[in-house]
Amino acid sequence: MVSTQKDPVLAVLSLSGGNDGLNTVIPYANPLYRDYRPKLGIAEGQVIPLNDELGFHPTMGPLKKFWDEGKLAIFLGVGYNNPSYSHFRSMDIWHTCEPDKIGTEGWLGRALKEIDPNAENVLTGVNFGRGLPRALVMDGVPVASVGNLETYGLLTGIEGENQRDQALDVFGRMYSPAVGRSAVLDYIHSTGTNALKGADILATAPDKYTSNVEYSSTVVGQYMKNIAQTHLAEFGSRVLYTTSPYNGFDTHANQAVLHSGLWSDVSNNVETFMADLKDHDASDNVVLLMFTEFGRRIGDNGSGTDHGAGGVAFAVGDHVKGGIYGEYPSLEPSQQEEGGNLRFNTDFRSIYTTIIEDWFRMDAQPIVGGSYEKVKFL
Question: Most buried residue among 288, 306, 307, 339 by CB atoms closer than 10 A?
Answer without folding.
Answer: 288
